[in-house]
Amino acid sequence: MDFESDWKLIRPGFVKLYKGQRLNSGLSMGASDRSKVLVEVYFKFPHPGSLLQWVQPLKPRLDLLNKSPSGFEWGYTGSGPAQLAFALLLDFLGESEIARVLSLYQEFKRLVVVQFDDSWALTEDLIQETIDKIEQKTA
Best exposed site among 21, 54, 111, 120 by fewest CB in 10 Å? Predict the structure, then answer.
């Protein structure tokens, strides 16, 4: 997927798009290579006469939950994917929802993060749909 086609997947208005990629995709990875990943948050905001877009790295938020000090990972059920699931949900829901994030992130990891390939894009709508699914199961 490229940047422009990714934006076509999401609704108009202020939106975030989460994207990840392995920087050494296609190489034989040893244990020390698994942490060479990049996860970014893309922002889009309609502005009169233009479209504002910017990118920033997703913060792992080890200060709130330290599952993987070595960083994010995905595609399996370990501590790196748990840290990614936590960071994605915290960024999406906000710090005021920390208790909710803590109750959701392991199932979110199982349903979403484990399924990621070497590169992936995740919309806010898909995150919300997954949260709704998890919360319906536990209600």
Answer: 54
